């Protein structure tokens, strides 16, 4: 999850650059409405009442993963969004593969992304934006993070093949987790369901 560096309070219309500064302001506000954000742009969008996904293309796929430690189940999910509407949702569950289980919710994120890209290909899409809240989804794919485990190496190789051999243009868009982005929240909810997390 991305670290929060900006805090916005709707009641004051102000952005604060530290939690301590935000806390001080909160003491003076009745029934405050506030959130923390990784970027100033997200904080400004929140104050303006704009959707953080407003800059996304009309067709995007949101991915997320979850892990049920009690039952040792990895859950993944993706939501295909077109013109701000969910047009396809899919869940993935894995309770057999040790390498996936070892990665916990990240394993679910990887599975969700792989299945999402396969689905995009099946639709004949020429380009797709994968919206994710875990940085490794983009960074292993573009090589800015070194893939050290077999599964992350295979993931990076898969994305490379999708781009180079299948001709699918893949873009990655980082979305801050749990900041009210409805399709990101929906993917999170579905991933939890896949992992049999009920609470």
Automatic annotation (TrEMBL):
The keyword Nuclease is assigned to this record = yes
Q: Which reaction does it catalyse?
A: Endonucleolytic cleavage to 5'-phosphomonoester
GO BP annotation list: DNA replication, removal of RNA primer
Presence of the UniProt keyword Hydrolase in the record? yes
Query: Ranges for the RNase H type-1 domain?
Result: 55-196
Write down a Pfam family by its short name.
Cauli_VI
Q: Which CDD domains match?
A: RNase_HI_bacteria_like
Enzyme Commission code: 3.1.26.4
Q: What keywords is this UniProt entry annotated with?
A: Endonuclease, Hydrolase, Metal-binding, Nuclease, Nucleotidyltransferase, RNA-directed DNA polymerase, Transferase
Signal peptide (from-to): none
Q: If you read the UniProt record, what top EC class would you report for this enzyme, in one word?
A: hydrolase
Gene Ontology MF: a single term: RNA-directed DNA polymerase activity
What family does the entry list?
A: Belongs to the RNase H family.
Tell me the protein's name. Answer: ribonuclease H
